[in-house]
Amino acid sequence: MEQTTDTTTRVPSAAGAEPPAPLFSEQAVPPLSDAAAPAAGTTATPRFRLRRSRTDRMIGGVCGGLAESLNIDATLLRIGLVALTLLGAGSGLVVYAAVWMLAPETDTP
Questions:
Q1: Please, what is the angle between helix 62-70 and helix 74-87, to 10°?
Q2: DSSP letters along 4-67, please?
Q3: Which residues contact 49 (CB under 8 A, 6 or more apart)?
Q4: CB contact at 8 A, 53 and 108
């Protein structure tokens, strides 16, 4: 038997047949390039911040602030909150109260 130090497997082949391709090759993984990295001087995507809205509020502004952060309609979040409250034995109210106490209001009115 022939001993090898590389990661390929040596298999005896039939006469005239080509040996199989190596299972792992260094060329299988492309090298990392700077093309995927953001260019210098550009701003990255802003982080998600949960804030209560000052303008779009019915009670505490929690759904309005979350809707602004997620860029969706606040009515959809309010319907979801009511459904969570009714189907989740009041857990929606607990979550709403916790966010109301912990999340700050937005800086701009």
A1: 120
A2: --SSSPP----TTPPPPPPSS-TTSSPPP-TTSSPPTTPPPPPPP---B-SSS-SSSSHHHHHH
A3: 69
A4: no
Return the amino acid letter for 9.
Answer: T
Residues present in the chain in total: 109
Give per-residue pLDDT as tens, 35-74.
555 556 666 667 777 888 888 888 889 999 999 888 999 9
Cβ neighbours of residue 108 closer than 8 Å, sequence gap 6 or more: 54
Summarised one tens digit per residue, pLDDT across range 73-106 is: 999 999 999 999 999 989 999 999 999 999 888 8
Residue 61 structure tokens:
């502004």
